[in-house]
Design brief:
Order of helices and strands: HEEEHHHEHEHEHEHEEEHHHEEHEEEH
Strand content: 15-25%
InterPro entries: Aminotrans_3, Aminotrans_3_PPA_site, Class-III_PLP-dep_AT, PyrdxlP-dep_Trfase, PyrdxlP-dep_Trfase_major, PyrdxlP-dep_Trfase_small
GO molecular function, one term: pyridoxal phosphate binding
Organism: Candidatus Amunia macphersoniae
CATH superfamily of the largest domain: Type I PLP-dependent aspartate aminotransferase-like (Major domain)
Shape: globular
Pathway: Amino-acid degradation; 4-aminobutanoate degradation
Helix content: 25-40%
Radius of gyration: 21 Å
CATH topology of the largest domain: Aspartate Aminotransferase, domain 2
Catalytic activity: 4-aminobutanoate + 2-oxoglutarate = succinate semialdehyde + L-glutamate; (S)-3-amino-2-methylpropanoate + 2-oxoglutarate = 2-methyl-3-oxopropanoate + L-glutamate
CATH class of the largest domain: Alpha Beta
Strand order of the largest sheet: 4-10-9-8-7-5-6
CATH architecture of the largest domain: 3-Layer(aba) Sandwich
Number of strands: 15
Number of helices: 13
């Protein structure tokens, strides 16, 4: 391992430069990347590019690798299953990994039993299916989401997404039967449901905003959303694609408030790095759509299911959840000290290992340029990071929950140096 946190001038050469040139020729500009490098291999939280340079990863594939990249237990499960059965579509014949994973997830999610589970491929696909289930169960067309939400890039998921740039720009019209209200506020939702509640089939909410900037709502927000939704006869959908599987220090973020949703959308880290997602929910709701309405060719692929069962095993003893909380406390303390020492105006926040820094200028306005400069400084020091927020002024951390202490501190040292470098004056 040749980790090097020395800042370097931009402009990749070698194989990286060649492959980025290839990317420019053959991949459309709409497929963007936060860190212009080309990764060849990864283990845990260390990623190696095609030129042999090592990077520290604070992105986890945008929250898809809570157990780290290439965890031995996950790789072993993938290898064993791939040698036995690589794929069969569940619409052709069932396979045991699908059924065992559905059984396992049904016991894990904070939903009133009996619970049923359908598997799919991506978080956006899970959102689409959750809306179909809610509409079939209620016979109502409207779906309510929240400002600054991110639910995916497919059509219904994108219609529910509140972040306009870059996701929704120039590609409308989107699905008409969607209403959005401010996140973290109860009164607008109450007024909407009072006026149109008989037409609302579902309310979908992220317990903590993900792409919206790791925003934690007031403690009574989610319970009140649940109360109002059920009073209106609508279905409460919790989108735990980014907050689930230990990111917030509980297995699911809903558990922090005691809210038990009707349907829950899962994805990202559920598969340990393979494409997998799920909708879990109360049985009477899940059974509302008729045969053939739900599913997909690769939904519940056996190899991905085997990986997920290994991930479930890794969370079983609670140690990863304890580690997530300790990681978050340490990272927030380090980042608070860094912004204070640099004289930078910023909000350091988070729950468990869901940690972010939001940058502001001296007038209190979102400081997108500062966040971009910090991210660029991290990249020059070979630390992979991501931004978020409605103004892209939030640096967010998706560290693997089992990241080594030394590696975590080296990454936080890089962020500290990048903040100092970008600080005005």
């Amino acid at each position: 391992m040749t980790l090097d946190s020395t800042a370097r001038s931009p402009g990749p050469g070698g194989r990286t430069g060649d492959l980025l040139s290839l990317r420019a020729r053959v991949v459309p500009r709409g497929v963007s990347t936060a860190n212009p490098t080309v990764i060849d291999s990864a283990t845990g939280s260390v990623w190696t590019d095609v030129d042999g340079d090592d990077w520290i990863d604070f992105t986890g594939g945008i929250g898809s690798l809570n157990v780290g990249a290439g965890h031995p237990a996950v790789v072993a499960a993938i290898t064993e299953q791939a040698q036995r059965l690589l794929h069969t579509c569940s619409h052709v014949a069932w396979h045991e990994p699908y059924l065992r994973l559905a059984e396992r997830l049904a016991t894990m999610v904070p939903i009133d039993p009996p619970v049923k589970v359908m598997l799919c491929t991506t978080g956006a696909e899970a959102v689409e299916n959750a809306v179909k289930i809610a509409r079939a169960a209620t016979g109502r067309p409207l779906v309510v989401s929240f400002s600054a939400a991110f639910h995916g890039r497919t059509w219904m998921a994108l219609s529910l997404t509140g972040k306009e740039r870059p996701y929704r720009n120039g590609i409308g019209p989107l699905v008409a039967e969607v209403r959005r209200v401010p996140f973290g506020e109860i009164e607008p939702l109450s007024e909407l449901l009072a006026a149109h509640g008989e037409a609302v089939g579902a309310v979908i909410v992220e317990p903590i905003l993900g792409e919206g900037g790791f925003v934690i709502p007031p403690a009574d927000f989610l319970p009140r959303v649940a109360e109002l939704t059920r009073a209106a006869g609508a279905v409460l959908i919790a989108d735990e694609v980014q907050t689930g599987f230990g990111r917030t220090g509980r297995l699911f973020a809903c558990e922090h408030t005691g809210v038990r949703p009707d349907l829950m959308v899962l994805g990202k880290s559920i598969g340990g790095g393979l494409p997998l997602a799920a909708v879990a929910g109360r049985s009477e709701l899940m059974d509302a759509p008729g045969p053939g309405v739900l599913g997909g060719t690769y939904a519940g692929n056996p190899v991905a299911c085997a990986a997920s069962l290994a991930v479930c095993d890794l969370f079983a003893d609670g140690s990863l959840l304890e580690r997530a909380n300790a990681l978050g406390i340490h990272a927030r303390a380090r980042l608070e000290a860094a912004v204070e020492a640099a004289g930078v105006r910023a909000d350091v926040r988070g729950l468990g290992a869901m940690v972010a820094v939001e940058f502001f200028d001296q007038a209190g306005a979102p400081h997108t340029a500062m966040a971009a400069a910090v991210q660029a400084g991290c990249m020059r020091r070979r630390l992979l990071t991501l931004r978020a927020g409605m103004d892209d002024n939030v640096l967010r951390l998706h560290c693997a929950l089992a990241i080594e202490e030394e590696l975590l501190d080296r990454g936080l040292d890089v962020i500290t140096d990048a903040i100092n470098e970008a600080a005005p004056g």
